[in-house]
Amino acid sequence: AVGVEQATITGTSEGASVAMAMAVTRPERVRALALFSPLLTTGQAFDLEAGDFTAELRRYLAVLPEEHRVSEERLRPFAEMFARSRENWGTGEFLSQLVPSLGSKSQLAILERAALPPSMLRMSMEAAFDSNSFHLAAQVRVPAIVFHARGDIIPVEFARYLAELIPGARLVETDGRDHAPWLSDSADFLSREFEEFVTGTVTSTRPTERVLSTVLFADIVGSTARASSLGDQRWRSLLESFRERTGELVNDYGGEFLKDTGDGLLATFVSPLAAVRAGQRLAEAVRDLDLEVRVGVHTGEVERTGNDVAGLAVHIGARIMALAEAGEVLASRTVRDLVAGGGVFFESRGTRELKGVPGTWEVVALAEDDGGSASRAVDNDRASRWFDGLAERMARVRGRRSLRAG
Asked: How does pLDDT run across 176-190, given as a tens digit for each residue?
């Protein structure tokens, strides 16, 4: 329609098979292939009514060569995700496993319900599994690049094998857990690799913006030992509950949830008081999940690039969090000075050297007042409270505008 005789075709997940089919059947129209998180299928549809996917798992194991073999234990969460999709679709369960960085489970539930009904999901899945990805890949004769995140629930071994099957294909593995790898921390790297593949050069740079912001880091205490004691599946389920709860809490306090750090989070706030209160509430809110977190808060100038932040203030926030004990909210003196009169109280933890950060920094801990509460009622007539309230409202407006712009 626009006069393009040859195009670089992209395909994601089950779309990788569709993209390969076009390259095989219409090679004169396909300049190159860029495949993201390919879902390789054998041409034999899964029995979506089956409660046990053992036969389907073994079919995959039989197709993959020894050097790319995936254990049945690692494949099981992938198979069970599809097995439970029909009954769970609309709850956010399916997408929370595919794209955990995209939002809380309640937000993903809305997205699922808006996307398609369970009957259409079933038809889409049956159509996807009906193709033979392995057979198509061996017939591709155009340049190809394959991207896949190592922590994706769809095993990265699929992408490794696909890159071997397509003659001359290049494999690019990224960090992260998202089935859409451009949502991960490696998005900038992925963008550069994609641009170079398509154009031969890298010319684009994402604009940076320096803004004053309050960063909040939180980290689950003892996560490695806890994961080991619970096992992969139970630990994954617990992490999903943690992400859902903390994501909603950050939104409630006018913050922006920027990234999932594996066993923690990074969020930014316009108001330092809102960040402190969110940190306090966060430490309390996860206790009924039998989890404890350490929290670090700092205010400073950060570089905004897309949906990420960088700069010295970010490093300071992370280093302060690392000093916190279980259930403790630590902050820099900068934060303490900015929220003076806001109804929260701090105790000094002394002057510290922060790894990789020049100079020394006074660290303070959120403290309880005489009434046993870390914060007491605040007079709404106080000027400081009024400005913090205004800042929180501005943050929510900015968030709504960003959603509309997106």
From this structure: 888 888 877 677 788
